[in-house]
């Protein structure tokens, strides 16, 4: 069995430099693959995520879905992930996909996710959080210790669950420099997915525009550090916008510590979810969009025979 294959550079750098974002492997027309084969290929690629484009379910199609997306890390399947959503939608478009409506509608484990095309960029509507609110003291203490901040508790400004599928625990730190200086003990947070964010006082790394620096540690999914993470940025946005810690429009930098230059654009706009169930409305019906630039870097075929 030979299937079309793409590898997409998602959230590419501020100036659109190649190979500075987060790659996702995308297998097209993957309906004939079983879950065991999908999981095996995802482990083989050893990327943070590998996706499979399949036909929507009857329920998804009735709700307006253009396709259904199966998302796998090396450790297993996820109900949602952000950079795979944008990269797969871009690959689907480049392969000739045509949305049924004004927006692309993706079906995945969390439901239907609208994807908006904005010039040469895509943005997905942040799905509602599956878990939010305060973090219990024992889990927070373990996360802080694992990040190497046990001797600097004052550096942790706030914490909350920001889980939209992968299980993210979010920590707001005092500044971007603290985020970049982290040297985590991954064994101490082995069963967690921890995201950290800290503000820049004057611009981003190397002078490139950015308001915050983000890092994502997901040993629970066999991903020690993810270069650029759409789901985490979406969860952080819902939390930090709702609490007034960030403005309605901001840019997140991620991947600096790994030699990447990812840029994630977050916009909170008025308006609904285009009639899609499980849409991104929150904070008085205002939609949070998480977007960036994607580019197909590899095109070819996958031989699974």
Content-based structural category: alpha+beta
Cα shape = globular
Number of domains: 2
> Could you state the CATH homologous superfamily of the largest domain?
Diaminopimelate Epimerase, Chain A, domain 1
Uncertain segments are 272-283
Compute the separation of the termini in Å. 5 Å
**Strand arrangement in the largest pleated sheet:** 1-2-3-4-6-7-8-18
Oligomer: single chain
Main sheet, how many strands, which sense, barrel?
Answer: 8 strands, mixed, barrel
Query: Under the CATH scheme, which architecture of the largest domain would be assigned?
Result: Roll
Task: Please provide the ordered H/E string of secondary-structure elements.
Answer: EEHEHEEHEEEEHEEHEEEHEEEE
Number of strand elements: 18
How would you describe this structure to a colleague?
The protein is α+β, with helices and mostly antiparallel strands. It folds into 2 domains: 2-128 and 294-303, Roll (Diaminopimelate Epimerase, Chain A, domain 1); 131-266, Diaminopimelate Epimerase, Chain A, domain 1, CATH 3.10.310. The chain is 19% helix and 39% strand. It contains 6 helices and 18 strands. It has helices at 35-45, 58-62, 82-94, 137-146, 176-181, 230-242; strands spanning 2-10, 22-27, 50-54, 67-73, 76-78, 104-108, 111-118, 121-125, 131-133, 156-163, 168-173, 193-199, 212-218, 223-226, 249-254, 262-270, 281-282, 286-303. An 8-stranded mixed barrel has the order 1-2-3-4-6-7-8-18. A hairpin with a 2-residue loop joins strand 6 and strand 7 (111-118). It starts with a strand and ends with a strand. 48% of the residues are buried. Residues 272-283 have low confidence and may be disordered.
